[in-house]
């Protein structure tokens, strides 16, 4: 993709604003060439964006739900109409394959705006049973009626991840706007240009000035300013657990509401009676989808002893068939990692796995291509629960396989990390799978699939996050409960 013709500007208060800090290059991880110039906001501009959102909040929160729905539907239409160029930009910025960029970046983003256009019209009142109140110090005897009503939180800081700049941002912005909040979006520094295109789509759809603001930067300073702004009431963050801890400290100090989707180290429990073909394809998404840069990936495989060796052989064969290359090539399945620094980190874990005594069955090396931040899918066998490659999030195309004998052993291994986002169970005994799901300390359990239901609550236990979003649960996440009481 050729470089964007004009340096990108910030979006603050409905205006495109020159950044105080100049610009920095956004690099295509497949070619190491420049995609465009992203704006470097100052702390003052981050505060200005939050103030613009605060100013716009009163009017937007009182806008009729039908009008909010109309704007969200219109934004979905603009995104769908520009799916081609938007997907090209997402591919160039993030390294996603062409098919992934179009279907799972742009397609999911448009779908989320359509979904929360409907969400804006969902009832916000929940009637409560009347209460009989006896006579006393507070008044005469009578019947008291009440409603629980969801109200917008206020100004939401949306701090997004690099692995899906469109869908992740849309998953925060759309439900927040549907509930009547205003937003300041701080995109990941690696691929922010897509989020500015989303802001353009919302502006074209008719979103009022200040309701949506976007500020970016290559250093943590801009995000810290957005999160710390006194005008921000809530922080919605997707990213690493380490950064999430720092944001949670700010939220705790200032009593801001946190919504955090953090790291993951998903376990796939594969029993002797499992369909190994389905398990192999599901686990193999760790190698292919986003090159393993996804928190929900089944990166730990717990294989019952009877299928342990066969599953390893199947996974190795599957990994060896996946083409690593330029994401624009339609035959490419595994694209690059997001940056040279992240490639180095993934490679350091691969080296660590060998040092820890795990057996590298296949992959883990750089392909011959002279350009791009590629690592061939890596499969480790003969692992144990104490190894760092088993316990820590690598965020790359690396899978570690461990054997187990009993159900209790499998559950102990699955629960043996600080993370708990999504685990997977592959077994022909579905009642057993559902029974074991109750013992897994994780926000989600998928049985005989790696698919997700986007209406189901999404979020993690332990160090994998706080709160839940997706479906109507996101509308609850971006709202406060107010009680209304009156005499009957």
From the 3D coordinates, which CATH architecture of the largest domain would you assign? Answer: 3-Layer(aba) Sandwich
Q: Poorly predicted ranges (pLDDT <50, ≥5 residues)?
A: none
Strand content: 15-25%
Radius of gyration: 24 Å
Helix content: 25-40%
Give me some keywords for this one.
about 500 residues, alpha/beta, Aldehyde Dehydrogenase, Chain A, domain 1, Aldehyde Dehydrogenase, Chain A, domain 2, 2 domains, 16 helices, 22 strands, about 20% strand, Ald_DH_C, Aldehyde dehydrogenase
Describe how the helices and strands are arranged.
Blueprint: E1 10-12, E2 15-17, E3 23-27, E4 34-39, H1 43-61, H2 65-81, H3 83-94, H4 98-119, E5 125-133, E6 142-152, E7 155-159, H5 165-178, E8 182-186, H6 193-205, E9 212-214, H7 220-228, E10 234-238, H8 241-254, E11 257-261, E12 267-270, H9 276-283, H10 285-288, E13 300-304, H11 308-321, H12 340-355, E14 359-362, E15 378-381, H13 388-391, E16 398-404, H14 407-414, E17 419-420, E18 422-426, H15 430-437, E19 444-447, E20 461-462, E21 465-466, H16 471-477, E22 479-487
Helix pairs in contact: 1-7, 2-4, 2-6, 3-4, 4-5, 9-11
InterPro entries: Ald_DH/histidinol_DH (IPR016161), Ald_DH_C (IPR016163), Ald_DH_N (IPR016162), Aldehyde_DH_dom (IPR015590)
Protein name: Aldehyde dehydrogenase
Organism: Streptomyces inusitatus
């Amino acid at each position: 993709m050729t470089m964007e013709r004009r340096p990108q500007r910030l979006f603050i208060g409905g205006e495109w604003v020159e950044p105080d800090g100049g610009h920095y290059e956004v690099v295509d991880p497949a070619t190491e060439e420049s995609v465009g110039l992203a704006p470097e906001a100052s702390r003052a501009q981050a505060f200005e964006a939050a103030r613009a959102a605060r100013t716009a909040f009163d009017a937007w929160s009182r806008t009729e739900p039908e009008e909010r729905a109309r704007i969200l539907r219109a934004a979905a239409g603009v995104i769908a109409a520009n799916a081609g160029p938007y997907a090209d930009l997402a591919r160039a910025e993030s390294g996603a394959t062409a098919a992934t960029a179009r279907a799972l970046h742009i397609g999911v983003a448009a779908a989320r705006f359509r979904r929360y256009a409907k969400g804006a019209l969902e009832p916000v009142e929940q009637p409560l049973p009347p209460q009989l109140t006896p006579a006393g110090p507070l008044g005469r005897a009578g019947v008291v009626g009440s409603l629980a009503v969801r109200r917008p939180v206020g100004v939401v800081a949306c701090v997004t991840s690099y692995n899906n700049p469109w869908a992740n941002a849309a998953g925060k912005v759309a439900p927040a706007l549907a509930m009547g909040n205003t937003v300041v979006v701080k995109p990941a520094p690696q691929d922010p240009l897509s989020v500015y295109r989303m802001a353009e789509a919302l502006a074209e759809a008719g979103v009022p000035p200040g309701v949506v603001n976007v500020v970016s930067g290559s250093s943590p300073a801009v995000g810290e300013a957005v999160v710390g702004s006194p005008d921000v009431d809530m922080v919605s963050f997707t990213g690493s657990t380490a950064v999430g801890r720092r944001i949670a400290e700010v939220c705790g100090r200032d009593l801001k509401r946190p919504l955090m989707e953090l790291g993951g180290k998903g376990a796939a429990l594969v029993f002797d009676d499992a369909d190994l073909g389905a398990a192999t394809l599901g686990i193999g998404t760790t190698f292919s989808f986003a090159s393993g840069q996804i928190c929900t990936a089944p990166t730990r495989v717990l294989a019952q002893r009877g299928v342990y060796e066969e599953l390893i052989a199947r996974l190795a064969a599957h990994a060896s068939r996946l083409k690593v290359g330029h994401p624009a090539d339609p035959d490419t399945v595994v694209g690059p990692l997001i940056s040279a620094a992240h490639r180095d980190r993934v490679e350091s874990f691969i080296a660590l796995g060998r040092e820890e005594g795990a057996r590298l069955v296949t992959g883990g090396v750089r392909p011959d291509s002279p350009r791009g931040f590629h690592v061939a899918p890596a499969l480790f066998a003969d692992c144990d629960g104490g190894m760092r490659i088993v316990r820590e999030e690598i965020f790359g195309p690396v899978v570690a396989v461990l054997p187990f004998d009993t159900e209790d052993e499998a559950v102990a291994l699955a629960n043996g990390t600080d993370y708990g986002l999504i685990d997977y169970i592959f077994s022909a005994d579905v009642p057993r799978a559902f029974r074991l799901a109750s013992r897994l300390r994780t926000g989600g359990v998928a049985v005989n699939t790696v698919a997700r239901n986007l209406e189901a609550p999404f979020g993690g236990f332990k160090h994998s996050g706080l709160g839940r979003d997706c479906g109507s649960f996101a509308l609850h996440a971006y709202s406060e409960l107010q009680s209304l009481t009156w005499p009957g």
